[in-house]
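Review form for a predicted model. The reviewer records the input and the model, then writes brief findings.
Reviewer: anonymous (R2)
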Amino acid sequence: MYLVLLVSAVSCSTRVETPFETGMGGIRLELLTDLSATRAEAEGQLAPEDFKVEIINQKGVIFKRWATYAEYLEQESTVFTMNAGGPYILRASYGDSTASGFDAFFFIGEQEFTVSPQQVTELSVVCRMGNVKVAVEYGDNIRSDYAGYTATVSTPLGSLVFDRDCAEAGYLPCGEISVNVVLTTADGETTDFVNSQKIKGEPGDFITLRIDTGELPESEVSLTVSVDYGTEDHQVDIELPSYMLPAEAPVIVADGFDPLTGTLSGFVEGLSPEKASLTLNVPSGVESCTLGIQSGTLADAGWPSEINLMEASSWLTESGVLSLPVSSGQTEVQLDFRTLAALLDWSGDSSSGDNAFTIKVTDPAGKYAEGTYRIQPSRARKDVSEIPDYDVWAARVYAELTTDGNPSLLYPEVRAEGSSEWSRPEYTSSISGQTNRVTVTGLNPATKYEIRAGYKSGVSETVRSFTTESAQQVGNAGFEEWTTQTHKFTYKTLFSSKEHNIDWDLPWTEDQWWAVNSKKTMPSSTGVVSANWNWVRFPTVAYTSDANNGGRAAMVYSVNVGDWLTASASVGDRVAGELFIGTADDSGNHSSDGHAFGSRPSALRFHYKYSPKDSETFYVKIEIRSGSTVIASAEKSDGAAASGWSPLEIPLTYSENGMKATGIYITFKSTTAEKPGVNGGYELVIRDGQSYTGNFGSILYLDDIELIYE
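Model under review:
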């Protein structure tokens, strides 16, 4: 490092005329800085104002002295007179030549000069480091083999201690250098080593001591000395009239921000801008670094108003602004605001000052750079499309929300007719391009609603209306309504034909939804006279007072009937009982399936009991239709035994969501067996506790049919 001190003898030809006595000259001191040092330890810690300046005459007497150059500048007049002649000596110095320490800088320089009357004289003095710089590097073996290690580096006038974590260099008075190394094992045993090699520390030297051991168990200590005799690494130019030294002040370089206003705009809220970064260049290394935040969006999210960037902060790391805290001495810091910018809401008028970020970075010399940068996204467009009627269900609606921003940030708001309050309902999303198709759930059936699109800073002006489907149920869902009719059939004797009557039950009174296949087991004539007509003719469906709720439930059972049938006979027709939505003809066959129905349920639920013959299972099927197209269906063919009333829910799967419902079909069968099994001479209890003995198989009890809307 060298300090150039220019001394000018000022004449009236170059300055405002100043009278001098004969044989005298005018002197003015000015300092100029041309910083070219490359060693960061001195940068930011030396300033021209701190150097002591002295002028010494021919007799070695200091007759002019300023404790600091700053003191000289503070004089009422910086012009002073000196006797012409000489030689004189100009001396500039900084620090203590006898001090030792990690910041014990010492620089000194002298230059001889003479003063000529009425002439301008220029001279320079070079200040070089007057002590020796020392650093210690520990090798890999020492670091891995020893729990502790220190090195004490000494000259006759001072010493420095370098422990295992010390990575910085220090300064010592010049002289012969000795090195004392103490190694400590994991067991606490210590070993001392003192160098025998002579190391001479001259002014301006930078000596690096590299210390390592051999492989265990020998652990022989080796010492390698590297001496940098060049002074250019510690070069500091001081010329008249420099303001400060040695390093330049920190600088903030913005990328993406307007260079005049410091504002970042031109992107839509919710999206990340292409560029939004700040680079902090700190030649002397960072001493402190803070980020001030003025943002309503971030304040609502719990962000503090100021963050120390030299401490760990989840706010910055999770938002991608800073991956790790800023380190002391760091010369470059990168701050990336792209991800953070996507979090910010549109703040209205850009003059409001919202979304402002103030960066301040300071170096060890107190120099700092400070700037305020604003991130002002434009307001996102949001809209909700017209809702077709097939997208409106009883408890949900499908709506398409669009934006020129981030579609994942769109959300629906709804309110029922008559309400002034908007609410954000439960919903799921499906995103395609700039459209977010939301499925809003939890709505009330047969209710008129309004819906609009929300996005970060506001909601759409467009509002759409829709009315949910009713939560329609099937008729006679609790099987409380029954009509009992008398079935008449003839039987032939040897000389005549006679009639016999049997009661059978139909699941309706006025509004007919359900039908039964009972006529399959009740032909209109027979050729026998039976002692037990139940073996010959008997319906497949009846009602019972054994109900889950209310006074009645349905019974669907398998029957074996036929001419000449007895309790033990294997002849006859075995028929599974069936209860279905539709109509049946006089033979018990389906004459129509389904009933008019305008809603789209999500599941079928009912209560049942089931007493199977052997390992038989019961069958249930549901279909939702639009015209002749089945748009949803579900079936279950493995209905298991249940001795007590049990709930069962069967979800519906829709193969077509773009059609409204016009009809519904449900059927229950007592068994899935092609030839149902029966118990001969079985006592069957049906309506009003009446008991009939016949050939009966699996029995399915049904109650409380319910369609679920979710």
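Findings: Helices lie at 69-73, 140-145, 296-300, 314-318, 338-341.
Further findings: Residues 140-145 form the longest helix (6 residues).
Recommendation: see findings above.
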